[in-house]
Design brief:
It is built from 6 helices and no strands. By secondary structure, it is mainly α. The chain is globular, with a radius of gyration of 16 Å.
């Protein structure tokens, strides 16, 4: 799975140099951060709705869209998926309560 994320990250990085009219992702980059964030919010809402519907194929499809647009955000900010995977690995074995307390309670 890490390989897929890294390959996709490479493509997303390359799209930064593409003509906005030639690539959906290049177009998102050209529109700026707010457009990328709006797309993530839209995909998050669609993921929630798919979850409520309970149809596995819809859930997978919408989560894939959400992950994809989250990866666009990471690339836009100069971050690689490995940073997120490292953070998840750091949390592995921590209880959710302990992890939240380490962050100061509320938030994320």
């Amino acid at each position: 799975m890490t390989d897929i994320l890294e390959r996709l990250a490479d493509v997303l990085e390359a799209r930064k140099q593409a003509d906005p009219d030639s690539s959906y992702v290049a177009g998102l980059y050209a529109k700026g951060l707010d457009s990328i964030l709006k797309k993530i919010a839209e995909e998050a809402t669609e993921t929630v709705m798919a979850g409520k519907d309970g149809e596995a194929d819809k859930i997978v499809y919408e989560v894939a869209d959400l992950w994809f647009h989250s990866l666009v955000l990471l690339a836009h900010q100069g971050l690689r998926p490995a940073r997120v995977l490292d953070e998840l690995d750091r949390r592995f074995g921590l209880s959710g309560i302990a992890e939240k307390a380490a962050r100061g309670g509320e938030g994320h």
